[in-house]
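Lay summary. Proteins are chains of building blocks that fold into shapes, and those shapes determine what they do. In this project we predict the shape from the chain. Here is one chain we studied, written as its sequence of building blocks.
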Amino acid sequence: MKRRAVFIDRDGTISEEVGYVNHPSRYRVFPFAAEAIRLLNDAGWLAVLVTNQAGVARGYFKEDVITAVHDLLARELGREGARLDAVYYCPHHPSVGEPPYRSECGCRKPKPGLITRAAAEHDIDLARSWMVGDRYGDVELARNAGTRAALVLTGYGRGEFEYQREAWHSEPDLVAENLLEAVREILREDNDVAGSRPLS
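And here is the predicted shape, written in a compact code that computers can read:
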């Protein structure tokens, strides 16, 4: 059977939104992130990071900075017994920078390329999976990729939900204070559904 995943945005969802992270010293993981991801690990769901990092295209930093930040994230999660199963990022921008980073790619959120690549590489059932993020673009990504959508109110989430919601074409399936609450609700709903299935 294909696996289920929670695809997770980075800045504003797993970590503080500080603008372009051009040095690992600026990166701050939310204190609840490790517990949220550990719950997914323990429940057998894949935890997959998907993030736009157009600072590369804009010339603010090189890809090795992204690698260093993600290594730092992995260490911080690991200290609390949590792990990401995969990390995918888009370094492109459609109108800024120089090739190959200036590109009309298929991986820049809300286009679904990062998620479809992850699904192919990890045998993921997208219809039974979730996307969690702090931007309406993450909700659009979920719709484009065929997953369910959870919006968290950390990062840009609260402002977008309270002030921009009227312009949205699609509502999230779940709104939660933060990643931990979103994961708890996703797992609670899954347990409720499993409990309601008739015994064979």
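What the prediction tells us: The beta strands are 5-8, 46-52, 86-90, 130-133, 148-152, 174-176.
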